[in-house]
Design a protein that fits this description.
With 246 residues, the protein is of the alpha/beta class. It folds into two domains: 15-78 and 200-244, no CATH class; 88-197, type ii restriction endonuclease, domain 2 (3-Layer(aba) Sandwich). 58% of the residues lie in helices and 11% in strands. The radius of gyration is 23 Å and the shape is elongated.
C-alpha cells in the first residue's frame, strides 16, 4: 500500500510542467550570467595547453560544457522532484528544516515526513547526521499530535538497499521505484514520470539553445579580448599569470 493510492494524474502533469519551467529558466539565467574571468580563475590552464588547444572557441566549448554539466544536475535536483513528490503523495510542502513533504494520513493516524533527494549518493557523514537531527525535531510535533511518525528519505532515482526502522536508524531510505511506489502504491509510477513529461521539454529547448549559443559567442569574444594576442593566438603566459600569478 502506498501513502496515496488515488493520486491525481492531472496534478502530477501540472507539477512536472511547473518544475520544467523552473529548471529551464534557472539554467538559462545561469548561462546568461556566466563570466569567463571567474571561470578561468578556477580552471587549470596547464591542462588546456597540454591538450594542445589552439583557439578560444575550443576552450570556451570545454568550459561551457563543463559548466552546464555541473549546474544542470544541481538545478534539476533542486526544482524537479519535490513538487512531483508533493502531488504524488497528496501531501504538502513542509516548513520544517530538512523535510520537504508532510503527509497526514488520518485514516491510520500517521504523519509521513519525507526528505526528497535526487540520487542515492547525496549524503556525507555530516549531512546524514543533520538529516537525522531534523527528523528527530519533526518527530516532536507528531508526538504532540499523538500521531504515528514515519520519516522517509526518498531518493528520486537510482537504487538503494531498503533500510528498516529501529535503532540505529529511525527512518526508511527508499530509492527509485521503491520510493515512488511508497508514495503512490503504483509500482510503475517511476516509469510513468517520463510519460507524464510528454512533449513539455521540447517547448523549452529552443530558448535554451538560443541562450547557449549567445553565451558561447560572448565568451569567445571575452576570452579573445583578455587572453589572445594581437595576432589572435592564445597568450598562454597571460592566461597563466591571470590564473596563478599576483
Amino acid at each position: 500500500m502506498g501513502i496515496n493510492n488515488s493520486y491525481d494524474e492531472e496534478a502530477i502533469v501540472k507539477a512536472i510542467a511547473t518544475a520544467l519551467e523552473e529548471f529551464y529558466n534557472s539554467l538559462i539565467d545561469k548561462i546568461d550570467t556566466i563570466d569567463i574571468k571567474k571561470i578561468m580563475k578556477r580552471k587549470n590552464p596547464y591542462l588546456y595547453r597540454a591538450k594542445a588547444m589552439q583557439n578560444a572557441s575550443e576552450i570556451v566549448d570545454s568550459v561551457l560544457s563543463a559548466y552546464i554539466s555541473s549546474s544542470e544536475e544541481t538545478i534539476f535536483g533542486n526544482c524537479f522532484f519535490e513538487p512531483i513528490a508533493i502531488a504524488a503523495s497528496g501531501g504538502e510542502k513542509s516548513l520544517a528544516e530538512g523535510i520537504d513533504v508532510i503527509v497526514h494520513d488520518h485514516d491510520v493516524n500517521t504523519v509521513y515526513a519525507v526528505a526528497v533527494k535526487s540520487g542515492p549518493s547525496v549524503f556525507n557523514a555530516d549531512s546524514k547526521k543533520r538529516q537525522e537531527q531534523n527528523f528527530i525535531k519533526a518527530s516532536k510535533l507528531a508526538q504532540q499530535a499523538k500521531e504515528v511518525y514515519e520519516p522517509i528519505i526518498g531518493y528520486s532515482y537510482g537504487k538503494k538497499k531498503t533500510s528498516k526502522n529501529g535503532n540505529p536508524k529511525m527512518y526508511k531510505e527508499l530509492a527509485g521505484k521503491d520510493f515512488w511506489e511508497k508514495l503512490t502504491g503504483d509500482s510503475e509510477f517511476y516509469i510513468k514520470i517520463i510519460g507524464y513529461m510528454g512533449t513539455l521539454p521540447e517547448q523549452y529547448v529552443a530558448d535554451y539553445k538560443v541562450s547557449y549559443n549567445k553565451a558561447a559567442n560572448r565568451l569567445v569574444r571575452e576570452f579573445s579580448n583578455n587572453f589572445c594576442n594581437e595576432e589572435g593566438a592564445i597568450d598562454w603566459e597571460a592566461l597563466v599569470k591571470f590564473n596563478s600569478g599576483d
